C-alpha cells in the first residue's frame, strides 16, 4: 500500500457508500445530542430546584436577621438618640450588606432595618377589642422605606421626629390591623413610659402592603397582620389577646428608648436566589456558616454592634434541598448510566457492522501487503470526516435545546461520542484482520470454540462484575451522593447475564435440534440450525438489549412507585377525595348543600375534638364519625374501617362502652380495657378494638375514632367528601366562610409534584429510558441487519427447491425468536435483580414528593412493577418477529434471480 493513491481514499469511499455515511452521521448526531443534553438538563433542574427551594421558603426562614441591643444607659440621651438616627442606621445597614460573604447575595428591595421593641407594649384604649377581657399589645418598629412597600389608604405616612422626652410620636398601621382593632386615622394609643409619663402614638395613616408575602412584610408578620396570642401557660383553653404592629416614623426611633419595650436595632437581609446555582451549594453552606458563627459574623459585629446576634434558617432550607437532591440523583444516574452503555454498544455495533460488510475488501488489502496501521489510519480518517462534524452539530443542538447548564460536561460527553464513533470501525477492523486469512471461516455458536485468551477475558470480566455486585449488596446502596457503583448496577448485572447466557445459549439449541430433525417439515429444523449459526460475536447486542431492558424495567418501576407514593401521600393528607374543615361547628344544612356539588358522590360528617386528655396526661384527637357513610367513603383504601367495627351499642348516653379504632401509639397507651375520657364536656367510655396507621377523619395525627352517636357533642366540625372530578370552585363557593378550609386530594397530589427537582428529574429519567429503548431497538436492528444478506440469499436458494413464501416467512421468524426470547427473558430477570439489589437503599420520597418529610408515614420503598418488567420484553420478541417477517416479505418481492448472483459467496 505504498505510493500515491490514484484517487483520495476518503472521498472515494464517501461517494461509493453515501447511505452508510449518512446513517453513521445521523447516529452520531443523535447520540451526541443526547449525551450533551443530559448533563445540561441535570444542571438545569438542580439550579431551578435550589432557586425554587430558597424562593418559596418562608421569608422569615431564609432572611439573615441581625439584632443588637439598644445603646447603653451609660451614654447621654443625645448620644443614644444619635446612634439610632436614620442616617446612622442606614450606614450600619450598608456595612452589614457589604460584609455578607459571596455567593450569598442580598435582595435590597425586600430588606429592611430599624429599631423595634422586643417586649410588647400594652394599650388600654376603650375602642380596642378585648377577647375575654385582655387588652391588645403592640410591637413597634421603625421599618425602613415604608413608602416604597405600601400604598396609602387613608391619612398620611408618619413623619417628624421624637426623642426620649417627647410626649407623642406618629405611627401607621396596616389595613388588617386597622380593621381588626377598630383603628382609624387620627386614633391615639397610650403606652407606658420608662421613668416618664405615658407616650402617645398617634395614627396618622392606614397603609396596604404592596407585596404582603415578601420578605419586607413577612419576616415579622405581626407588622402586617394582627394575631391572637395565648397568654403563657400549658392550658389549651387559656386566654388570648390581640398582638399587632405599629409602624413608627424612623425619625422618632429615640422615643422607643424611653419605653418598656426593650428596643433592639435590627437589620433583616432578604436572600436573593435569582443567580444561585447548584454548583455553588457547598460555597453557600460555608457562607451561611460564616455568617452564623464565623469570620463574617466577626466582621459584622465590628461594623454593626459588638452585641450582634444573627438568626436564620437558611442552612436548614439548604439542607432540605440537599436531602431531596441526594435522594433523586442516584436514581437518575441509573438511567443515565444504562442509556450511556446502550449508546456505546450501538456505536460499537455500527462499527462492527461496517467492518463485517467490508470483510472481503479489507482481507484483500491485507493480502496485498497493507499493514494494520495503514488500514486503521485510512478507516479512522474516513470515519472522522463523518463523525466529528456530526458530533459538533449534536453538541450545538443540545446547547440550543437546553440553554442553561455547564458547557464543559456537555463538551466532554459529545467528545466521548465522537471518539468512540471514530475508533469503532478501525479498531474492529484491526482486531479482525490481525492475521491474513484466505477465506471466510464459519463462526457459529454451536460449533465455535472460544480461544483461551477470550475465555480468560470473559472470566475476568465476569469475576469483576460479580465482585462489584457482591460488594454493592453487602455495602448497601444508601449514602446520599451519587455512587458510580450504584449507577452501574444494572450494567454490571447485564454484563454477568450476557456472558452467562451467551455460553448457555447453545445448549437449548442442541436439545431442540434433535427432535426438530425428526419432524416431517424441514422448517423447524432449519430455523434451529440457522439460529445456531448466528455470528459468534453476539455478546454486544445481547448486552445492549439486557441493559436497555433492565433500565426500562427499573425506570418503569421507579416512576410507577413515585406515582403510587404521591397517591398515598395525598390520601393520607386529605383522607377522602375532598374535605371541609372548620374550627367551629358547621351549619346543619351544609352536608346537604355539599352533596349537590357536581362530582360529589357522598358526604360523611365528622365531629373532631383536639387535645383530649388521656389517662397518662398525654393528649390526642378524638373523632366521632357516622360508621356507615365513613366506611362507604373509605372503602378500598388504606384508611378503610368496617362500619360494624365502630357501631355504638344501644344504651344511655355516657354509660355504654364505645368501640374505638386508634392509632398504634394511642392504642398501646390505652390498652384493651375500657377507658373513660372527657370529650367536649361529656364523659365517654371507650374500648380500643383495633389499631390503624392513619385515618381519614384526622389525617397525619394520632387519633381515636368512635361512633358519633355515642358522643354528647354531635355537631360536625368537618365533612369528608367522596367522588370523582369534584368541582373545586363550586365546593369552595358552597362552603365559603371565614373559619372553613377546603382541600382536595387532587390538589394535594399536585402540590407534592410541584417542584423543579421532581419534575426535572422525572423528565430526565423518562427521556433517558426512552432514549435507551430507542437505542436498544437500533441495536436489535443492527444485529438483524448483519445477517440480512445471508438470510435473503438462503431464502432465494430454498425457493428454487420448492419452499413457499409462507414457509420462508415462518423460517425467518422462528430463526429470530431464540435470540430475541433469550434477550427478553434475560432482560426481565436482570431488571428484577437490579430492583432487588438497589431497592433497600433507594427512597422514592425525593422523586415522589416536593418535601422529603411528607412521605415518612406513608412509605416509599421501590418494588418491581410487573408491567415494566414484562412489556419491554414482549416488545423485543414482537419486534424481532416483525423484522424477520418484513424481510421475508421484501425478499419475496425481489425474486430469486436478484438475490442469487454468480460468484456471490453468501
Topology:
Elements: H1 9-16, H2 18-56, H3 59-62, E1 64-69, H4 77-83, H5 86-98, E2 112-117, E3 121-122, E4 137-141, E5 150-155, E6 168-174, H6 175-181, E7 188-191, E8 199-209, H7 215-218, E9 227-230, E10 240-248, E11 263-269, H8 281-293, H9 295-303, E12 309-311, H10 314-357, H11 359-367, H12 372-401, H13 407-432, H14 452-475, H15 484-487, H16 489-504, H17 506-517, H18 523-532, H19 539-574, E13 578-582, H20 590-595, E14 600-613, E15 619-625, H21 627-634, H22 643-646, E16 657-662, H23 664-670, E17 675-679, E18 682-691, E19 703-707, E20 718-723, H24 728-734, E21 740-744, H25 745-753, H26 756-786, H27 788-800, H28 805-838, H29 845-848, H30 866-894, H31 896-899
Helix pairs in contact: 1-12, 2-10, 2-12, 2-13, 2-26, 8-9, 10-13, 10-19, 10-26, 12-13, 14-16, 16-19, 16-28, 17-18, 18-28, 19-25, 19-26, 19-28, 19-30, 26-30, 27-30, 28-30
Please give a structural write-up:
This protein has 906 residues and is an alpha+beta fold. The protein has 31 helices and 21 strands. Strand 17 and strand 18 (682-691) form a beta hairpin. The longest helix is centred in the middle third of the chain and has 44 residues, at 314-357. The radius of gyration is 38 Å and the shape is globular. Mean pLDDT is 80; it is low at 852-857.
Major sheet: 9 strands, mixed
The number of strands is 21
Radius of gyration: 38 Å
Helix percentage: 40-55%
Report low-confidence residues grouped into runs of 5 or more: 852-857
- Strands across the major sheet, in which order? 17-18-16-19-15-14-20-13-21
Structural class category: alpha+beta
Mean pLDDT: 80
Strand content: 5-15%
Amino acid at each position: 500500500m505504498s505510493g500515491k493513491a490514484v484517487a483520495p481514499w476518503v472521498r472515494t469511499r464517501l461517494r461509493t457508500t453515501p447511505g452508510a455515511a449518512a446513517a453513521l452521521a445521523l447516529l452520531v448526531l443523535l447520540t451526541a445530542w443526547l449525551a450533551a443534553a443530559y448533563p445540561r438538563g441535570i444542571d438545569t433542574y438542580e439550579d431551578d430546584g435550589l432557586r425554587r427551594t430558597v424562593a418559596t421558603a418562608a421569608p422569615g426562614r431564609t432572611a439573615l436577621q441581625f439584632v443588637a441591643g439598644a445603646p447603653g444607659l451609660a451614654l447621654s440621651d443625645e448620644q443614644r438618640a444619635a446612634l439610632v438616627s436614620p442616617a446612622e442606621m442606614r450606614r450600619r445597614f450598608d456595612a452589614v450588606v457589604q460584609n455578607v460573604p459571596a455567593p450569598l447575595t442580598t435582595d435590597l428591595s425586600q430588606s429592611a432595618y430599624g429599631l423595634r421593641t422586643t417586649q410588647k407594649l400594652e394599650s388600654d384604649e376603650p375602642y380596642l377589642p378585648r377577647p375575654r377581657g385582655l387588652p391588645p399589645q403592640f410591637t413597634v418598629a421603625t421599618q425602613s422605606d415604608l413608602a416604597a412597600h405600601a400604598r396609602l389608604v387613608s391619612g398620611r405616612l408618619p413623619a417628624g421626629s421624637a426623642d426620649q422626652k417627647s410626649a407623642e410620636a406618629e405611627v401607621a398601621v396596616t389595613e388588617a390591623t386597622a380593621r381588626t382593632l377598630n383603628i382609624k386615622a387620627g386614633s391615639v394609643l397610650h403606652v407606658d413610659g420608662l421613668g416618664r409619663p405615658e407616650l402617645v402614638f398617634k395614627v396618622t395613616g392606614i397603609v396596604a402592603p404592596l407585596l404582603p408575602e415578601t420578605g419586607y412584610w413577612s419576616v415579622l408578620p405581626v407588622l402586617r397582620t394582627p394575631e391572637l396570642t395565648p397568654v403563657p401557660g400549658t392550658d389549651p383553653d387559656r386566654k388570648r389577646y390581640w398582638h399587632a404592629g405599629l409602624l413608627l416614623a424612623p425619625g422618632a426611633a429615640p422615643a422607643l428608648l424611653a419605653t418598656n419595650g426593650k428596643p433592639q436595632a435590627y437589620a433583616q437581609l432578604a436572600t436573593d436566589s435569582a443567580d444561585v446555582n447548584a454548583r455553588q451549594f457547598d460555597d453557600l453552606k460555608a457562607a451561611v456558616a460564616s455568617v452564623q458563627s464565623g469570620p463574617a459574623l466577626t466582621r459584622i459585629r465590628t461594623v454593626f454592634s459588638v452585641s450582634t446576634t444573627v438568626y436564620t434558617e437558611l442552612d436548614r432550607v439548604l439542607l432540605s434541598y440537599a436531602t431531596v437532591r441526594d435522594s433523586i440523583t442516584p436514581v437518575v444516574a441509573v438511567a443515565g448510566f444504562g442509556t450511556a452503555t446502550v449508546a456505546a454498544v450501538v456505536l460499537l455495533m455500527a462499527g462492527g457492522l461496517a467492518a463485517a460488510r467490508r470483510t472481503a475488501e479489507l482481507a484483500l488489502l491485507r493480502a496485498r501487503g497493507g499493514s494494520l496501521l495503514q488500514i486503521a489510519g485510512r478507516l479512522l480518517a474516513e470515519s472522522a470526516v463523518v463523525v466529528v462534524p456530526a458530533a459538533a452539530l449534536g453538541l450545538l443542538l443540545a446547547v440550543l435545546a437546553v440553554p442553561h447548564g455547564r458547557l464543559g460536561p456537555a463538551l466532554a460527553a459529545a467528545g466521548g461520542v465522537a471518539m468512540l464513533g471514530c475508533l469503532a470501525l478501525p479498531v474492529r477492523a484491526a482486531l479482525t484482520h490481525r492475521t491474513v486469512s484466505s477465506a471466510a471461516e464459519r463462526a457459529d455458536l454451536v460449533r465455535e470454540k472460544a480461544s483461551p485468551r477470550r475465555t480468560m477475558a470473559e472470566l475476568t470480566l465476569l469475576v469483576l462484575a460479580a465482585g462489584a455486585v457482591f460488594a454493592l449488596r453487602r455495602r448497601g446502596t444508601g449514602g446520599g451522593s451519587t455512587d458510580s457503583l450504584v449507577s452501574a448496577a444494572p450494567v454490571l448485572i447485564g454484563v454477568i447475564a450476557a456472558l452467562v447466557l451467551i455460553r448457555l445459549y447453545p445448549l437449548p439449541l442442541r436439545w431442540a435440534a434433535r427432535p426438530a430433525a425428526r419432524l416431517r417439515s424441514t422448517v423447524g429444523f432449519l430455523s434451529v440450525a440457522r439460529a445456531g449459526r448466528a455470528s459468534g460475536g453476539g455478546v454486544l447486542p445481547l448486552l445492549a438489549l439486557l441493559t436497555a431492558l433492565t433500565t426500562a424495567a427499573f425506570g418503569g418501576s421507579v416512576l410507577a412507585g413515585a406515582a403510587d407514593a404521591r397517591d398515598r401521600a395525598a390520601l393520607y393528607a386529605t383522607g377522602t377525595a375532598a374535605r371541609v374543615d372548620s374550627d367551629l361547628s358547621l351549619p346543619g344544612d351544609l352536608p346537604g348543600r355539599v352533596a349537590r356539588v357536581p362530582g360529589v358522590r357522598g358526604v360523611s360528617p365528622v365531629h373532631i375534638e383536639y387535645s383530649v386528655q388521656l389517662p397518662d396526661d398525654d393528649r390526642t384527637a378524638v373523632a366521632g364519625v357516622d360508621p356507615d357513610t365513613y366506611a362507604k367513603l373509605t372503602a378500598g383504601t388504606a384508611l378503610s374501617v368496617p362500619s360494624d367495627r365502630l357501631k355504638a351499642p344501644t344504651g344511655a348516653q355516657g354509660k355504654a362502652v364505645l368501640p374505638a379504632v386508634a392509632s398504634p401509639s394511642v392504642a398501646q397507651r390505652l390498652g384493651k380495657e375500657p377507658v373513660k375520657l372527657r370529650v367536649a364536656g361529656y364523659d365517654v367510655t371507650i374500648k380500643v378494638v383495633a389499631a390503624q396507621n392513619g385515618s381519614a377523619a384526622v389525617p397525619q395525627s394520632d387519633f381515636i375514632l368512635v361512633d358519633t352517636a355515642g358522643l354528647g357533642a354531635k355537631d360536625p366540625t368537618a365533612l369528608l367528601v367522596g367522588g370523582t372530578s369534584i368541582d373545586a370552585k363550586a365546593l369552595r363557593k358552597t362552603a365559603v366562610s371565614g373559619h372553613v378550609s377546603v382541600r382536595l386530594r387532587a390538589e394535594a397530589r399536585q402540590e407534592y409534584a410541584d417542584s423543579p427537582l421532581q419534575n426535572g428529574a422525572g423528565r430526565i429519567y423518562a427521556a433517558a429510558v426512552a432514549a435507551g429503548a430507542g437505542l436498544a431497538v437500533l441495536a436489535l436492528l443492527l444485529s438483524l441487519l448483519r445477517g440480512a444478506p445471508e438470510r435473503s440469499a438462503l431464502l432465494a436458494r430454498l425457493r428454487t427447491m420448492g419452499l413457499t413464501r409462507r414457509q420462508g416467512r415462518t423460517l425467518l421468524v422462528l430463526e429470530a425468536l431464540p435470540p430475541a426470547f433469550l434477550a427478553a427473558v434475560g432482560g426481565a430477570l436482570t431488571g428484577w435483580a437490579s430492583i432487588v439489589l438497589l431497592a433497600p437503599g433507594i427512597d422514592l420520597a425525593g422523586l415522589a414528593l416536593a418535601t422529603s418529610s411528607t412521605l415518612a408515614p406513608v412509605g416509599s420503598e421501590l418494588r418491581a412493577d410487573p408491567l415494566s418488567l414484562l412489556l419491554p420484553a414482549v416488545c423485543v420478541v414482537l419486534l424481532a418477529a416483525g423484522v424477520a417477517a418484513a424481510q421475508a416479505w421484501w425478499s419475496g418481492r425481489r425474486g430469486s434471480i436478484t438475490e442469487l448472483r454468480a460468484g456471490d459467496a453468501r
